[in-house]
Amino acid sequence: MIRDTESFGILLDTISRFVRERLIPREQEVVDTDAIPEDILAEMRRMGLFGLTIPEQFGGLGLTMEEEVLAAFAWCRASPAFRSIAGTNNGIGSLGIVFDGTEAQKRKYLPRLAAGELIGSFALTEPGSGSDAGSLTTSARREGDHYVLNGAKRYITNAPQAGIFTVMARTNPESKDASGVSAFIVERDTPGLGVGRPDRKMGQRGAQTADVAFDGVRVPAANLIGGVEGMGFKTAMKVLDKARLHIAAVCVGAASRILDEALGYALERRQFGQAIGEFQLVQAMLADSQAELYAARSMTVDAARKRDTGEPITMEAACCKLYASEMVGRVADRAVQIHGGAGYMQESAVERFYRDVRLFRLYEGTSQIQQLVIARQMLRRAGRTR
Q1: Helix, strand, coil percentages in the chain from 3-state DSSP, rounded to 5
Q2: Residues that are catalytic
Q3: Domain 120-229 belongs to what topology?
Q4: Which of 44, 109, 216, 258 has its CA 20 to 30 A from that of 188?
Q5: pTM of the model
Q6: Residue 3 binned pLDDT confidence (cut-offs 50, 70, 90)
C-alpha cells in the first residue's frame, strides 16, 4: 500500500542519495570508532528517519508496511549499524507503545521517539531465556502506585544510547509461562537501572548492545503498557511479527549491496587474460545470488501488502525472516568467494558484511524458531479448515 506514489518516490530518492553520498563513505569510520558520527545522527533526525513508522499524529511519517520495507531496501545498502541506531525507534523500541500503549503513553513518548530525541530499546532477552521468552524471570511487584522491577536483560540493542526501555517482566509470580508477563516503559535515569559496557561482537560495530540490570527499579504504574497486567507477551509477539518482516527487508537491502560489490569485482578483476565474470562458475554464483535476492524481495513485498490489508501475517513474516536472513548469508559467502583472497581482507566491504549479516539469523527469533512458528501456523490454519 503506497499512499502517494510521487511523495514516496521523493522519499526513496532522498534516502538512496543519503546512503550513497553520506553513509557508505563513512562506513569505515563507524567500524573504527564503534559509533555513528554525531553529524550523521543529526542528518538522520532532520530527514525524519527516526520516525518513519510512527503515526503522523505523533510526529512520524506513518509509513505503511509496504512503504517501510521499500525504504529499508534502500537504507540498508549501507552498513547495518546506520539503520540499527534508528531501527528500534521505528520498530521494537516504539511498537509496543504504538500497538498497545495508552493515549497518555503515546502522547508522552512517541513524539520524542519520532524526532530522535529519545532512543527506544526493547528488553526481552535474559541471561537464562532467549528463544524461550516465556520463561523470563525479571520480576515486577506492585507497591502502591509503582511496580518494583528486579532482574537482568542481555544483548539489548541500543541499550548504551537508549532513553527508554520497553521491558518485559513477570507480574504474576505464580505463573510459569507467558501469561504472567507484562510490558513496562522504563526511563533510563530511573534509580536502580544500570547499563553494562557495550558487548564485543563478531560484527555490526556501531550497532551497540549491552546488558541491562534492574535492582529495585521503581516504575510508575502509569507506565504499564496499556494499563493491563499479563498482556506483555501478546504485545511482544505483535511487535515481533512486524519486526521480523522489517528484518527481512533489511536482509534484502544488505544483499543487494553485497551482490553489487561482487558484480563490480567480477567485471574488474582479470585472470587468465579476461574478467573473472566471464568464467561460468563465477557466473553461477552471481546468478544464484540474484535469483535468491529476487525471491526474498518478492516475498517480503507480498507479505507487507498482506499486512496492509489487515491479513494476519505471523506465518508469512516468519517465512520472510527465515528465507531472507539465510539468503543474505549465502550471498555474502559467495561474494567473499568471488573476491578470492581480497574478500578475506578487512579492507573489503564484503568481508565486513560477511560478519555483519550473520546476526540476522539470530535476533528477532533464530532461524529454528522461525521454522517452529511456520509449522505451528500451518497446523493451526489447517485445523481451522477441517
Answers
A1: 60, 15, 25
A2: 364
A3: Butyryl-CoA Dehydrogenase, subunit A; domain 2 (2.40.110)
A4: 44
A5: 0.94
A6: confident
